[in-house]
Amino acid sequence: MTEWTKQIEAEFEKAAQARANGNEGQARVCARRAAGIAIREYLTRRGTRPPSTSAYDLLNLIKDDPHLSPDLKLAADHLTLRVTEEFKLPVDADLVAEARMLCDELLK
User: Fold this and answer.
1) How remote is the C-alpha of 71 from its chain's centroid?
2) Number of folded domains in the chain?
3) Residue 98, CA distances (Å) to 39, 63, 79 in order
4) Is the pTM here over 0.85, yes or no?
5) Domain holding 18: CATH number?
6) For the segment 90-107, what is each residue's pLDDT rounded down to a tens digit?
7) Distances (CA, A) of 18 to 10, 24, 85, 93, 103
8) Do 40 and 50 contact (CB within 8 A), yes or no?
């Protein structure tokens, strides 16, 4: 198992633990970090040096990637949404599941 694979899995484990503890905000943070690790690996494989270490910046970057399906772009978009004043997402989405799908697709 590669180092980045271990890092991604660790983030998803932390996300599951946060969700189990009722901390959805922390679960979202972990999901974003996992996606950021996958995006860095995806860009590196394509011969592009990741322009940032920020998962948020990288998610914004791949929203415009012409090689990605609309579903992946939507997942990246959801992962960059700001929460409302009630700390809820403005859309009905499971960011942990969307991040998992994004990671799986990018790293095929």
Assistant:
1) 13
2) 1
3) 14, 14, 8
4) yes
5) 1.20.120.330
6) 888 899 999 999 999 999
7) 12, 7, 20, 17, 19
8) yes
